[in-house]
Design brief:
Oligomer: single chain
Number of helices: 3
Structural class: mainly alpha
Strand content: under 5%
Largest sheet: none
Helix content: 55-70%
Number of strands: 0
Shape: elongated
Distance between the termini: 86 Å
Order of helices and strands: HHH
């Protein structure tokens, strides 16, 4: 007997049927990555771009195979574009003049 009516049927988490709930879930990471990617187009793209890539990658479960959420995939793509544009912008800003004139 499970004891006082608290059987395992009522509590599905009691026997390891669900994953750990210690960190943020994948849907939240995907949305955070998407917000970072969109905000990176307007400010701090060199910081928010890689943050969006990391959040999107973690939201996809650190693999390209299997089921992917759309916000996670968009976060990775936009984060890569953010980072690339920020690097081009920094290279262009550093390449003009070089402080000699």
């Amino acid at each position: 007997m499970a004891g006082f009516g608290n059987g395992t049927r009522r509590y599905p988490r009691s026997r390891g049927r669900m994953g750990s709930r210690t960190g943020p879930d994948r849907a939240t990471l995907g949305i955070v990555g998407l917000v970072c990617a969109v905000a990176g187009f307007f400010a701090l793209g060199i910081i928010l771009g890689p943050a969006a890539i990391v959040c999107g990658w973690l939201a996809m479960g650190r693999s390209w195979t299997g089921s992917r959420s759309v916000p996670a995939l968009v976060a990775v793509a936009l984060g890569a574009i953010d980072t690339l544009l920020a690097i081009i912008w920094l290279a262009g800003a550093a390449g003009t003049g070089n402080g000699l004139l």
